[in-house]
Amino acid sequence: MALGPIFRSTLRNPTGAVLIALQIALTLAIASNTFYMVKQRIDKMNRDTGVVNEELLTARVFYFGATVDQKAQADIDRKTLMDIPGVKSVSYSNSIPLGGSNNTSSLCFEQEMNDGGEENCPHSPSYYRSDVSFHETMGLKLLAGRWLNESDAIDSESISSTASRTMLLSDVLAKLYFPEESAVGKQLYLGGRPLTVVGVYERMLRPGTGGSNPDHTILAAEPQTSGYLSIRIETDRIEQVKAELEATMVGLNDQRVVSVIRTLDEVAERTYRRDKAMVVLLLGVVALLLVVTALGVAGLVSFTVANRKKQIGTRRALGASKRDILGYFMSENFAITATALLLGGFLAYALNQYLLQSYQLSRLELVYVFIAAGCLLFISQMATLLPALRASRVSPAIATRTV
């Protein structure tokens, strides 16, 4: 690479090279942060719910009849639905993974929530309330202890705020609260109420999608009679049951509304619609930036070739080969691009620092700067290739002409 002639040539007319270098640097800063945000969104959409998505059918159930014995009706619902071929388990709960109806409360080591600050109440998990078959309906995996049973079930409306209850913790929460020992048998306080940990399950996502702790969840045996109805069904029967569910439920009791009947895969699809749209938008912006940058590079090199035709012809007349001319322009572009990418790396981290402080995004990983830099270097070289090939075809006779 003939850096001396390239450097001197650039100094004689630096405006175009400086503008293109700034464009490449800004594109790198934006593209690297965008690639990182896209990766985070994709990871969010692909994370494991911890439940058997493909087997779950969900619905919202609300009563409008004041005289309905909801507890008795819930028992009838379960029995009727369990008699349907292909149905494995049925549960009512206050929410479902990715369902959006998120109940949270501070989980503390001591009963007095105001004592000790964050050390006493370090996390606020999502709180699932359902019957003792909920783990079977969701397809959860037990890692330690036991599942909840009928002796653990309580009426959430009549239970005393000081009475001890039992609960299951997600494995992530169990490790956070008891990193050096088993969580089973330990007592914690949820909103001031004592809860004894009887088991630990592998994981289950929160109902909401926001926040940085998606699998901070607990499960208690508080049977529900409305809210979310979840049915675990053999996959080849799920569409048929879905088509007949509303008629079946209203036929059992017409003083209620049964709506939003979806498989859990459909729930996830709708929950992540905005994330998918954001990924498409961000990638579209980056693609546009890369196209504009490529056009800018190609335009600069074409302009340079047009202005240097006589100089190129002179070099050809003095013995420079087509390959030498091609290599010169490719090397010149490489030097400008490499300088721009070095500047762009600093700009990328400056932009990331602003995003960290303003929008609580995570710190940019270096690999995404290299990925964006590699893309820009390749695009810049490809944009240079065509005008550089035209330059290599300039005839030595051009040197004898008067421009």
UniProtKB/TrEMBL annotation:
Keywords annotated in UniProt: Cell membrane, Membrane, Transmembrane, Transmembrane helix
Molecular functions per Gene Ontology: transmembrane transporter activity
Annotated ranges, domain MacB-like periplasmic core: 26-247
Lineage top rank: taxon: Bacteria
GO CC annotation, single: plasma membrane
Residues annotated as transmembrane: 278-305, 325-351, 366-386
Cellular compartment(s): Cell membrane
Principal localisation: membrane
Membrane topology: Multi-pass membrane protein
Domain named ABC3 transporter permease C-terminal: residues: 285-396
Family note: Belongs to the ABC-4 integral membrane protein family.
Protein name: Putative ABC transport system permease protein
